Amino acid sequence: MSAIELDGLLAQRIEVRHPSAPHECLGVNSKTELAILERHYQMNRAAKLLEQGVTLADPARIDVRGELSCGRDVSIDVNCIFEGRVRLADGVKVGANCILRDVDIGAGTEIRPFTLMEEAQVGANARIGPYARIRPGTRLDDEVHVGNFVEVKASELGRGSKANHLAYVGDSSVGRDVNIGAGTITCNYDGANKHRTVIEDDVHIGSDVQLIAPVTVGAGATIGAGATISKDVPPGGLTLTEKKQVTMPGWQRPQKKKK
How is the beta sheet containing 204-205 ordered, strand by strand? Predict the structure, then answer.
């Protein structure tokens, strides 16, 4: 629309436009109307993904709140949210109820349900989740497994490494083919500063291990279950922090007082 002069009067030129859909003419005067338009917008985004060959379990239950780029044969289950810039390479599968924000996912990787990922890179054929949290600054190489209730922050995990259950890996450099047992944590914060943990290739860490950073675990080392590691571990061999098991005969379990 532009201004023109007609018989000495200033008038406005009116041009006609045909909307591509009726909802483009709808106004917003309430939260309900805003929600309706948002769903129209999301359905349009879903339709474009379907046209590109993406499999959506339910086009009505996806939110794209940024830029989502998908390769071939990508599959997305229900109630997933994509924020910022997200790239899903060929063959990626995203399970239900996942949130992905500014992430790059390699070909053939599976993101299992209820996983939260932020500002991270994942290689090909990895397996993440369910219930995993991948925090900013994380880089996971090809064929890495990060399982249920595992949190990774500002860390690199090398090819084929695994942390399958109930672990925290923060501010760490983890090599190839490392196995991190259930309940293992990197103690990266001393109350004032963050420190790094280095775990070299082919390390096996048993369950319920605490690695007090800064610390380095040498290649091929094994750490026994329940160990608290505060000094560097040499390559190879088995490292334990043993405590003698004691039994107290005749010990009585405390009893509740009768009311």
Answer: 55-56, 75-76, 93-94, 110-111, 127-128, 145-148, 162-165, 179-180, 204-205, 222-223, 238-239
Q: What angle do CA 99, 79, 88 make, to 5 degrees?
A: 50
Contact 148, 166 (CB under 8 A): yes
How do 3-6 and 9-12 pair as beta strands? antiparallel
Residues 19-66: tens digit of each pLDDT: 666 666 667 778 998 888 888 889 999 999 999 999 999 999 999 999
Half-sphere exposure of 101 (CA within 13 A, CB side): 10
151 strand-pairing partners: 133, 168
What is 29-239's CATH topology?
UDP N-Acetylglucosamine Acyltransferase; domain 1 (2.160.10)
Q: Among all residues, which ones are annotated catalytic?
A: 165
Which residue type is seen at 67?
Answer: E
Single-letter code of the amino acid located at 238:
L
Whether residue 184 contacts residue 141, with contact meaning beta carbons closer than 8 Å, is answered with: no
Domain range annotation of the chain: 29-239
- pTM of the entire structure? 0.86
Tokens coding 146? 């990060």
Which amino acid, one-letter code, is at 168?
Y
